[in-house]
């Protein structure tokens, strides 16, 4: 018997009437919130060199991305749990407000330290936008019909992935990088207004204590994982020096915090992440795919716009436009698979096909070269996007459908949390492999030139698209070829992970999709 009740349980009448109009209005606010969160993860990357140049902190630019990623990862499980315990309306409104405040502070920042701090505030809001948007859909739409809504959410993610670099480049070249943050404010305020007026979700009262110990330990473990995987970009050493006591202490502290978290979760009355969820084969397979997806696909995507700028000579705006084939592929399958899931009530085949096709996309990317045509490149990333669209939102539906309605928030946050951790680890490993390859390639290239043809400050850390354009012609050609020759083989390290995800997908147990929305199942709403 649940010790979490809604107000409707005490009055005997549901608090919410779910008409089609109500659902679509709420869905509009959720899409805006999802777009904001997804866009902000990609829009800053293009503007980053200009931002750190203006603020005089080029050597510490990694902190801008790390602070945001860390904040998102830390709060995801907390938002998920609070939504299950107390209801999702108030946390969702708080998340939007925090995100808007963080965006405003970032736009007004006068120093690098201020920007990192406000960027962290942004992340604290963004983590809630993603989790609560997906969980609220589960509250108001049945699992059987959810594909029609999750598909557009996946498409929004794909659009934001490409629109981010495009807008970042346009803002940087035009009105200025601060508009990367100002953009969020009006959209966020509109989403906040709609959510406040229309998002009338029932509140809940719980006698169960919040798992504060688990939250603290998971925060420490998550912080350690993100800082370890970002070590090369946030320290002056630019490498992993295991004789450094700070690095060793961080590793040991992370392992201890993670072990302590697992122990605590087995002993508390109401854990932050109930480990019993992993007994469900559908749940465990889905979140495993999410982890693999983060480690492979997001690591790959993070380097492709830079490849277009470094090896092909396009500016940031052009690079963003050339990523459109991936978005088109993702939108086709995200929307198509969503409608098919709703129509047929079956979903297992989509993660299998998606991981298989996306892995083929990774194999194709091992053939990247400086002289390849953009038609070839577009075909490669179209295949990658086509595979991603079949997986991204399908596994969210599978995860949510595998648990009881009162655990939807926790299940959703666990899925997204593992995907974010996978992205951090995968990007770090991929970056390390690529940098090692590039260093070797450049060393070989330098031997073919005279010492006078190589600038004194030349090196891997000094390579930016602008710096490459200023190099002497002979050296620039060598750098361009070295960059593509170093990047292409690095994708082979991701291919085995993609194969693992493909194999894991076959083990998913397909559970019949529920025909009741979460709130209806809990007695907090009726459908009309």
UniProtKB/TrEMBL annotation:
Entry-linked Gene3D superfamilies: MFS general substrate transporter like domains, Multidrug resistance protein D
Domain of life of the native organism: Bacteria
Its membrane topology: Multi-pass membrane protein
Segments forming domain Major facilitator superfamily (MFS) profile: 26-513
SUPFAM superfamilies xref list: MFS general substrate transporter
Keywords: Cell membrane, Membrane, Transmembrane, Transmembrane helix, Transport
Annotated signal sequence range: none
Main localization category: membrane
Transmembrane segments: 21-39, 62-80, 92-112, 124-142, 149-170, 176-197, 209-234, 246-264, 285-308, 320-342, 349-368, 380-400, 421-439, 490-508
PROSITE patterns: MFS
Compartments it resides in: Cell membrane
Name listed for the protein in its UniProt record: MFS transporter
Originating organism: Cellulomonas fengjieae
